[in-house]
Amino acid sequence: MKKIGILFVIALGIWACQNEPKEAQAQDPREMEKAINSSLNEEPPQVDLNDPELQEKVRKLEPKAHNNSGEPILIKGVNLNETVNPQMVMKGQQVYQKKCASCHNLNDKAFKASGFGDFLQRREPAFFMNMVTGVKLEDFAPASDISTLKKCWTRQESNKLTIIEARDMVELLVSENQ
Ligand code: HEC
To answer: To test the ligand 1 pocket, which listed residue (96, 127, 148, 152) has its Cβ within 8 A of the most ligand atoms?
Structure first.
């Protein structure tokens, strides 16, 4: 009888462990990597952006954040990295070349549209994210700017960027402003 009692306690213990609540918030792998690096007190590895193997890996990176509802989310603020993340910059560059370069310069010279060079001096990173991910202009832009902003290619439903693409582009703009 005693044995059964002990077995019961063990089984209960195993059950309790399995039912521990999973961590509520998934951690950003980049933040985790940073934390590990700093805890080891190591210099982050040098990255060669032209390395074809790295480029291939970056191309395959899957976005981790999903907006399941499909509705654009109003972004209130962007946590910028302490030091720019080269992989994000590289992905941002790919988006920029493919989708924006035909109208926007990366410097501050206006072309078919304003240059991005001085964007972060004029507006918040969150404004950029909201602008290009399809958030309603009325929710974040000054009323007097709406008719101009509407003309951006990204404001058409089929052209809006994902949150990940937009965040990578913010990283690119930060890196260009250093
Ligand atoms: C066909 C031309 C065109 C393309 C392509 C285009 N835009 Fe625009 N964009 C505009 C126009 C026009 C405006 C409004 C006038 C202005 O700000 O110059 C604008 C405005 C913006 C603004 C607001 C600028 C500010 O200073 O307030 C952002 C941010 C922006 N675009 C981001 C993007 C991004 C990111 C891409 C690529 C994914 C992109 N645009 C592609 C034409 C374009």
So the answer is: 152
- Do the domain assignments include residue 112? yes
Q: What is the pLDDT of residues 12-27, one digit of tens each?
A: 455 554 555 545 556 7
Number of domain units in the chain? 1
Distance CA 17, CA 139 (A): 45
Q: What is the rounded distance in angstroms from the CA atom of residue 109 to the CA atom of residue 98?
A: 19
Give Cα separations from 54 to 33, 48, 58, 93 (angstroms): 17, 8, 6, 15
For residues 105 and 43, is the Cβ–Cβ distance under 8 A?
no
State pTM to two decimals: 0.71
The finding on whether 102 has its CB within 6 A of some atom of ligand 1 is: yes
